[in-house]
Amino acid sequence: MRIVIAEDDPLLREGLALLLRAESLDVVAAAGTPEAFLEAVDEHGPDVAIVDVRMPPTHTDEGIVAAVEARRRRPGLAVLVLSAYVEQAFATELLGGGAAGLGYLLKERVGRVEQFLAALRRVAGGGTAIDPEVVAQLLTRTRPDAALDRLSPRERDVLAVMAEGLGNVAVAERLFITEGAVHKHIRSIFAKLDLAPDDRGDRRVTAVLRYLEDARRRG
Amino acid sequence: MTPPGRGSTTSVTNTTPARRGCHHDKLYRLPASRLVPYRLRPMSVSIPNDEARDLRRDVQVRIRGTLDALEQLVGGLVTAILALAALVCLGAVALACLVGVGLRLASTALRVVHGLADRERDRLSQRGPQLIGPGPRPTQVRAALANRDTRRELGWLVTHGTLGFLLGLLGLVLPLNAVRDGTFPLWWWLLPEGEATSSLGFWPVHGWLGVLGVFLLGVGWIALAVGFAGGLARLQSWPGRRLLTATADADLALRVTELTATRAAALDAHATELRRIERSLHDGAQNRLVAVTVLLGAARRALTREPADADALLERAQSAAEQALAELRAVARGILPPVLADRGLAGALAALAASCGVACRTDIELPGRCAASVEATAYFVVAEALTNITKHSQARHATVTLRRERDRLLLRVEDDGAGGADERHGSGLAGIRGRIEAHDGGFALTSPPGGPTVLEVELPCGS
């Protein structure tokens, strides 16, 4: 897995590179500005980019803009966005066009190395990684989507963990239930959200996007 | 740094009449481009005790006040001459109207009067409470004569063109006579016999006794100027202040508009300041803490694999945590430095100067206090400037000067270093600019290669 890092804070950039290299991952470049990041993407053709949202010059959403541009230049590039705080607008901006190969995590999650690496691998493999904090914010809102209201509390829990991008086994572990129970809940969720099994695309991602879409409509 | 034990040095400043601060209501709207470098010429004088210092300060204030009043009188003289000319034109137009040919000219003449009144409003607003004009006025002769504001403007035109003119003339003649008679002993012998007289014209001077008399007359002129210039200036501007303000009813709507704009600007400044704090928290301290968690995470992983590496990682994590603490302290201090509350701005700046790596003199005159955020900004500008001087300028001396001109705070930091300071290199100066612009103040930096470097800042006091 070839990785490019875009992070303007030198200490954090070094720390991140150090951590990933210690895990024998291939960090091919670490950039401090959006321009340097895009150059590195062109030059090295990485598999994954880890991008900070706030980058120079204005320190607002340059990172997201650069990430979107990088994916335009290099379709299929997996992007894991790190953010200092949860901003739903960023999440929807990033995931609006589909969630495959995308992740959005709070920066401090990097410290939980195993979970962070798992999220990184998931994103690199075309999956999704969404921060529990983002998911929690989305789920605690009262939603106008009647279909979502039909979910039982347990099903909402399952969808929440799913929305982070975890697979069935991981969901079962997190919620201390059997894999069979997870399967049952997920089938029920799909049914309540009217996601037929023959629908094209990943129904799991579609379910998550329903939340994001709904949140954006309300926001 | 001022060596301890050497008595503190205070400077006495000989100030040319400094530019007046902007009037109160425009507090937050002064563009940076309006910043005109004010001239302060410090000269060092050691003063043994407080009493002498107070006396000297008193004299200084007096002299400054007198020069200021004279400048104001002469400024008034300019508009008074224009008013007199307009008055003559108006008379001519009125006469022409009587014979039936002047009506066309009348509206032009009225426009001239309005323009002149607006000019005087601006001038007076620069030197005191703002005068808000009445807005558009009719230029049709009949409507104009019925219009109260126009009638008041005409009233002002008459008084200012006559009384104001005479007072302005006095403001010009007084100092000229003072200089002429005061220096009379130096050049009277150049005059042909019988033509040597005092400024009053009579009383030919023949011997040293007469010269002494003329010299004393010069001293008398100075005494008159010191004693009466302020009163004369007030008297001269009084009709304008009374007659050129919009009447109460018309005034109110304009005032509301004005205050709304001012308030919005104040809120903008506040939001900019909050944004700066938010950024320094998110991009500074929080990033350090994230680095701590990243390094701790890496250390934990290393413990299971290669325990020897863990220590180095923990070491780095610790230093990152220390940096986070330092940044948090800096942010907290950036919001409001504790020393400001303890010692006031003057004391806080003196403390900064004393701890500066370059010998730094302070010359601070600050009656009263300013808004807390303004004092904090002034403090930071000086702190940043002195840091820059210590680090980059190779200067041997620095001077910090602070004055309050009505509701503006004027700050100047000067050094005798290598010059060549550039805002584009290093974030320090850019940071200074950001802070000042948040308060809608002005900022000017001159730093030619070879020095000296002068940083001038102007801030609204906000109180």
Structure description:
The complex is a heterodimer of chains A (219) and B (463). Chain A is built from eleven helices and six strands. Chain A has 219 residues and is of the alpha/beta class. Chain A folds into two domains: 2-130, Rossmann fold (3-Layer(aba) Sandwich); 136-218, Arc Repressor Mutant, subunit A (Orthogonal Bundle). Chain A has a six-stranded parallel sheet, sandwiched between helices. In chain A, strand 5, helix 5 (113-124) and strand 6 form a beta-alpha-beta unit. Chain A is globular and about 45 Å long. Chain B is α+β, with helices and mostly antiparallel strands and 463 residues long. Chain B has three domains: 11-19 and 343-460, Heat Shock Protein 90 (2-Layer Sandwich); 58-246, no CATH class; 273-335. Chain B is built from eleven helices and seven strands. In chain B, helix 9 packs parallel to helix 10 (372-393). Chain B starts with 10 loop residues before the first strand and ends with a strand. Classes of the chains: A alpha/beta (219), B alpha+beta (463). Chains A and B meet through helix 1 of A and helix 7 and helix 8 of B.
Q: SSE layout and pairings?
A:
The complex is a heterodimer of chains A (219) and B (463).
Chain A: E1 2-6, H1 10-22, E2 26-31, H2 34-44, E3 48-52, H3 62-73, E4 78-83, H4 88-95, E5 102-106, H5 113-124, E6 128-130, H6 132-140, H7 146-149, H8 153-163, H9 168-175, H10 179-192, H11 203-218
Parallel strand pairs in A: 1-2, 1-3, 3-4, 4-5, 5-6
Helix pairs in contact in A: 2-3, 4-11, 6-8, 8-9, 8-10, 8-11, 9-10
Chain B: E1 11-15, E2 40-44, H1 50-98, H2 103-126, H3 141-146, H4 148-182, H5 184-187, H6 208-243, H7 248-305, H8 307-335, H9 338-354, E3 359-365, H10 372-393, E4 397-405, E5 408-415, H11 427-438, E6 442-446, E7 453-460
Parallel strand pairs in B: 3-4
Antiparallel strand pairs in B: 1-2, 4-5, 5-7, 6-7
